[in-house]
Amino acid sequence: MALSIRKNDLVTIISGRDKGKKGRVLSVNHKKGTILVENCNFVKRHTRPIPQKNIKGGILEKEAPMPLCKVKLFCSDCQSPTAIKSKTTEDGKKQRVCKKCGAALIKGA
Fold this sequence. Notes:
By secondary structure, the chain is an all-beta fold. The protein has strands at 10-13, 22-29, 34-37, 42-47, 58-63, 66-67, 71-75, 80-82, 84-88, 94-98.
C-alpha cells in the first residue's frame, strides 16, 4: 500500500474530536497505518517520577497516533483538504498533485 501522506506535510483532521484542526505530520507508521500529527489527538499519561532521567511525575499530555483514514492532505493553493493523485513529469519522476485544483503538492509546504 503506497501512502501519499509523508512526514512534514500539512494535514487536516476530517473526523473525531479534533475535526477541523490543521497540523504538521510528525511521523507515519506504514505497518499500523497510523499517523502522528502536531498539536492534535492529545491523551493524558500518568507517569512516575524518574530522578535519573530528570522526569517529573504527574499527569502529562502528549500526542497519540491516529488512523490515516481520519486525515486529508491540505492544499495551500485551494485552501482546502483534498485527495491526491500522482502524475509523472517529463523527466520521469512521480509528483503528487491536488485533485481539486491540479497544483503540485510540495513536501513540507
